[in-house]
Amino acid sequence: MQSLYRLYPSNASCARRPRPKTPVFSICLSASKPLGCSAAICGRTSLAVKGPTVSNYAWVCFLCRSAARRPGDATDVRCRSCGKSCECIGYKTPIPPKSKLQEWEALRRLYYCKKQQGLARRTRDRVRRIHSLEKEILRLESVPSNPGRTKAVKLMKKRLKALLDR
Question: How far is it, in rounded angstroms, from Cα 119 to Cα 108?
Fold first, then answer.
């Protein structure tokens, strides 16, 4: 089965293959080594993905029940019907037909619930980072100072200030 995915002939060893000039993320499925190359990312196979993902994400307008496909890093995707901002729901989420109102309502509720959960998780993680930085600063200040420790405390205070200013 591995031979279906191989770009190079089976007699060529993985070590002799030329390295590609562009950055490539891949998995080696060499027949000479049953578990692939010793390096997990070697850039010498046909299962290579160059650069960022090229999937188009689904951007939906819940008011018009319309969808558009745009890259995930697109900014300010507008609805073609009403001109309002669309919401990115990912590239794997199935989009219901325009006529199925209940499925659109379920998708809208799920999207906003996940968005709210993500916001709560980020807020909780931020509070945890602040607390751990405060504890670490107190711990380092309670022991005798040295140049490295002083520098570390200064850096942690800078990070704490940045977290508190958000």
Answer: 17
